[in-house]
Amino acid sequence: MTSNVGVAGPRHGRRDPVTPPPRRTSRFGKLDIKYSPYIFVAPFFLLFAVFGAYPLVYTAVLSLRKNTLTGGDQGFVGFENYTKVLTDEHFWTVIGNTFGLFIISTVPQLVLALMIASWLNKKMRARTAIRMGILIPNITSVAAVGIVFGLIFADRYGLANWLLQTVGFDPVEWRNHRWSSWTAIAFMVDWRWTGYNALIYLAAMQAVPKELYESASLDGASAMRRFWRITVPLIQPTILFTVIISTIGGMQLFTEPLLFNYGRVQGGSLNEFQTVAMYIYETTFSNNFNVGRGAAISWLLFLIILIFALINFALVRRSVKGQTR
Fold this sequence. Notes:
Elements: H1 27-63, E1 65-68, E2 72-76, H2 80-86, H3 89-120, H4 127-139, H5 142-152, H6 159-166, H7 178-205, H8 210-218, H9 223-234, H10 236-251, H11 255-260, H12 276-286, H13 291-324
Antiparallel strand pairs: 1-2
Helix pairs in contact: 1-13, 2-13, 3-7, 3-10, 4-7, 10-13, 12-13
């Protein structure tokens, strides 16, 4: 007698779950996750150390030494270079020129940029083409801009004097008087940077909620009132940002007045429009090749810019805190 004793086996269509082997994270993978962010930002800090921090420190060291390109390093002199610069009337003349050019170029520039941005913020045809067009002056070679404006403000055959004579005014010697030269250089600076600042303002304006304008319109507010009561307060941090950038750029103004004077760093016959940056170049490379004194002027300019930047930064923080309350 036989017995049919079956061996228990797996049911048809079902399989036992297979437990995957534990994953092992390699040591290289852990290091990659831990240090990869630092590797990504390392090129910036490397470039900043080479082209930013090192020149700043080296300039500070040079400013404390008597050093010329012809005589070499003649030893440590402490703050003698700073004392000679601060007691030099020429230094205060170029400081006044720099501040004057900064004010008469920056204030109209930012006001005009705000007006252009408000106009571009409306619905219109070819809006993208217009936005691209106003940025063209900023991407144009500054050398080309200097040559063109040098011809426009030429004393004898310039376009500016031709227009003045057409309406009955006498021609102007643009490079021999302080205010005329400042005006010509301000035109050059404003032509380059107004469109750039206008696009920055436009980006800020487009972030303002449209509901605020609609509510103000229902309450009977005019377009001008909506602009001053809604737009300007809400983009105030952006306005202060452009003021900071314009301040830094205005204090370092060099290329425009240099090209306006046909490459001469004196800034006119009586230094009418010589800026601090031009004075640094003249002291270091054109007048006795005094590297130590040029470095001292550079550090004084850096401190002036730093003070203005800190003041503007404090104003920005105060504005942001006032809006968040």
